[in-house]
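Q: Joint fold for the lines below.
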Amino acid sequence: MNREMYRDLTPIVSHKLEGKFRESIESGVVCKLDLSSVAFGASLMVNSTKVEERRLRDMDGFFHDQEAYNGADKQELVYRTYYFNFDGMSCAITEMFPGSIGNEFYLTKGHFHEPPEMSEIYIFLRGHGVSVMQNRSKKKPVLIAPLMQGTVVFSPPFYGHRTVNIGRDVLSWISIFNTKARLNYEPIVKEGFRALIVEKDGRATFTMNTSHI
Ligand SMILES: [Fe+2]
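A: Joint structure:
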């Protein structure tokens, strides 16, 4: 187990969440690149084929605390994604803003792929976050990976995935996936994610979602 992979996150996460990080690192879905000498040009974003924004108004039903969601400013921008389509493979750059609804950190809606065997690779550029990955089979443990600059995450076939910003700054990443992969939000709308990433005593931690079917 390589503790270097989440060294920058240890001041802001609970020991309980560190335990989940160890599980995901040992399962081989995450590794780390040294991006300190790489410059990412904004010009790449200008050439995108599509830009998609998610404001709070687009995310009704995705946060655990519906009352807190109802009271929030729905114009608030949660994340913005720039898509680049190539022949057979696509890539997207997402920037996600910091914030929370109740005690739950800002998150992506999360989805499964159709066909479900299509996987995805994420490369994290800046910020601090966690990736939550869950198999359709409830027998397999939910994976929660630590994210920071240089983290590479492999979201395996048959796993739904969501990204959560647990930091105070923008979290951004590149994702690479098969152009034919359709995004299936239905199981998330219906069942939610099995683990929720929340703030407790000033640190990020996870709690199991009791309303998950
Ligand atoms: Fe995906």
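Q: Anything notable?
A: The pocket of fe (ii) ion is lined by residues 111, 113, 120, 161, 177 (CB under 6 Å). Residues 3-208 form a domain with the Jelly Rolls fold (CATH 2.60.120.10).
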